[in-house]
Amino acid sequence: xxxxxxxxxxxxxxxxxxxxxxxxxxxxxxxxxxxxxxxxxxxxxxxxxxxxxxxxxxxxxxxxxxxxxxxxxxxxxxxxxxxxx
Length: 85
Prior knowledge:
This protein is of the alpha+beta class.
């Protein structure tokens, strides 16, 4: 049985009221998380994103995608994957 680790975005995302008015940004950059999510929803691929935003690590984007996927599908009440809404 594989033990699943909970993804913690606090290690890759920061919020500082002095940086972009507190918008959540990737650590080591001034790129807001919502910009990356907007580009993903527009069909951008991982290599396109890292080329356009070189200050955001590929691993950070991959973790963000995995985090969003797990948050969307995980139903904490019965511990099954299901839509949360």
